[in-house]
């Protein structure tokens, strides 16, 4: 439990937004939050009419840092609050075929002033960043002199190897000794810098193509932003990069995260999420549904070494299995890939478990997962 020095409410909208029941993947992270005076309030912008598949993952990555709280914001929320109590905004990636092409003028002004006049921070992930650029095709805030093109990296989707520039090593000094590291990547557009102004800096690039930036920071008026072509929120061992970006954009002191979440190169090679890999994963997932005990455990072993995020939700359901070996292997799988979305499920599995030894083992896994959150 986070130490609380002063209990405050983030903003009035927390009382006014209705608690609509939605699917887990579309859950609104609106809640009352206990803050201390040093907490960083992060808003995750979720524009109406667009699909955001990875908001849950961003929220869980933010939960790593005990000095942050978050809330999901729609256009209506921005109009009500004017972002008065938000320190950093995150523009998450949308479904790969979507583009931001409709935004209320008043909302656009609020977003623009938030960075350039109020001096707050902004972070974009993948195509969620188009709204920040000098786009001529779609509505944008013209915050940074960058354009997106449809040219993609050699891997459409999967794991790619990334190298840091000298500027990138200043933001992520833990990685400066590494020649490269691996991160999730999904259909990221190419980010073209339209001028050589020093306020725009490349932090990282695809290892074998320095003409393909994957992480950029920039000064925008009084504020700062980071644009990521990567998905560290989806990458076990690298999720801590999200709260680090938040701290950088808000000029907060950098803090380090423990070895439970700092595991660069957990994936030791590039991987393409192509048709063959999808087909193999589907076969293994069907074994989780219909296989015998040893087959199910073997399938989890193989899925964890293949591309484990594809199996995370299915493995999560195995925590309810009656077979102890399957239940415990599922718990280990989820802890190994930092799937903190399953923390409540682990708690429920512990409550319903009758065998003392199994309960103790599940509790150990739960505690290990819980230690990934609210650090520092």
Short description:
The protein is an alpha/beta fold. The strands form 2 sheets. Strands 1, 2, 3, 4, 6, 7, 9, 10, 11 and 12 form a 10-stranded mixed beta sheet that branches. Strands 5-8 form a two-stranded antiparallel sheet.
Notes on the structure:
The chain has 376 residues and is an alpha/beta fold. It has 2 domains: 13-249, Class I glutamine amidotransferase (GATase) domain (Rossmann fold); 274-370. The chain is 32% helix and 19% strand. The protein contains 12 helices and 12 strands. The protein has helices spanning 13-16, 55-62, 75-81, 105-116, 166-171, 241-249, 275-290, 293-306, 312-317, 324-336, 343-352, 356-370; strands spanning 40-45, 68-73, 88-91, 121-125, 146-149, 157-164, 181-186, 190-193, 200-206, 209-220, 223-228, 271-272. Strands 1, 2, 3, 4, 6, 7, 9, 10, 11 and 12 form a 10-stranded mixed β-sheet that branches. It has a two-stranded antiparallel sheet with strand order 5-8. Strand 9 and strand 10 (209-220) form a beta hairpin. Helix 7 packs antiparallel against helix 8 (293-306), helix 8 runs parallel beside helix 10 (324-336) and helix 11 runs antiparallel to helix 12 (356-370). The radius of gyration is 21 Å and the shape is globular. The termini are close together.
Spans of at least 5 consecutive residues with low confidence: 1-35
CATH architecture of the largest domain: 3-Layer(aba) Sandwich
Strand content: 15-25%
Largest sheet: 10 strands, mixed
Shape: globular
Per DSSP E runs of 2 or more residues, the count of β-strands stands at 12
Number of domains: 2
CATH domain fold name of the largest domain: Rossmann fold
> What CATH first level of the largest domain would be assigned?
Alpha Beta
The span between the termini is 11 Å
Helix vs. strand class: alpha/beta
